[in-house]
Design brief:
single chain; 352 residues; Nucleotidyltransferase, domain 5; binds 5'-O-[(R)-(carboxyoxy)(hydroxy)phosphoryl]adenosine; binds zinc ion
Length: 352
Amino acid sequence: MIVLGIESSCDETAASVVMDGREVRSSVVASQYELHEEFGGVVPEIASRAHEQHILPVVRDAIAQAGIEQSEIDLIAVGHRPGLIGSLLVGLSAAKAMSWSLGVPMVGVDHVHAHLYAGMLGREEPQYPALGLVISGGHTSIYEVRSALKVKRLGSTIDDAIGEAFDKVAAILGLGHPGGPKLDALAAEPGANDRAFDFPVSRLSKDSLDFSYSGLKTAVLYEAKGKPAPPALRGKPPLPKPEVPELTHERMRDIAASFQRAAVRALTIKLGRAIERVEGCRTLIVGGGVSANSLARREMQRFCDEHGLELIIPQMGYCVDNAAMIAGLGDRLHASGQVDDLNLSAVPTTGC
Ligand code: KG4
Ligand code: ZN
């Protein structure tokens, strides 16, 4: 089964050819980082225009790199939720046009669910039941996974996603967009002290499997820029200047490392609670952009070693948004009987 995957939910235009749901023959990703950098985040209108420019060359490249003819494609899989509507519509329209013109079926894939599938590319089926963890720029959720297609959400963030917190903290430190990888590199510099600042690790209520990252982000903001003046003094000059030490490179490095430690610690705390709810859990499946984070990868492995689980985590190329995960999961959905028609719509929220 030769599947063409198409992904355009946010600021990456991607296409990929995957055989039998596992073997990646090509994976092409066109990023738009530079276009959004000056705005400090993704601008939806700019993103959809860039998708329009990239989509056909990216699809052509993916087919050419896979060494196949367009006529050999058996199925089109497309990420149709969640995401920016204007962005999703570009990939979805391309997928519909190809499905119709080639006369092959099309399946719509949930992008968040696909992040959980990314670790299964290039390897055999994991053992179930499993715990699932999606850590990305838009989502932070824990799942009970009974099979590649049977996924039940147990908890998710009540405010910021973990990747969003990485990006915002990187912006506070002036590291640029997207901040996650830059912050990861800064925290890994020799001499970085991850205990320099005691940033809060959100636990929420005793049994909660939800996450919260806004308090951690604010704690970093206050540490870097100083606390705002107490309300009673606001607007009454002279406003006391927040006293903050200069943001030297050394201080930034320690803030980055301490933030990262707190952010990742919240994940292992919730996984520790979640494993109690999944009897006979055999595997931990992790996905999403933040699964590229060096500390997160080490801590996930440590968690698995402690609990006797096998860790399934994507190869570096399949952590952030890509179309191979869409094609792979699309193959599985099609095998289970799903076929969508030209009425398939773009949906802003996840169903996962
Ligand atoms: O999965 P993804 O590409 O997009 C969404 O579905 O949201 O994730 C992007 C997120 C961004 O917030 C980015 O900063 C973060 O993943 N990210 C990282 C690293 N690489 C990407 N965060 C921390 N450390 C990294 N090495
Ligand atoms: Zn994603």
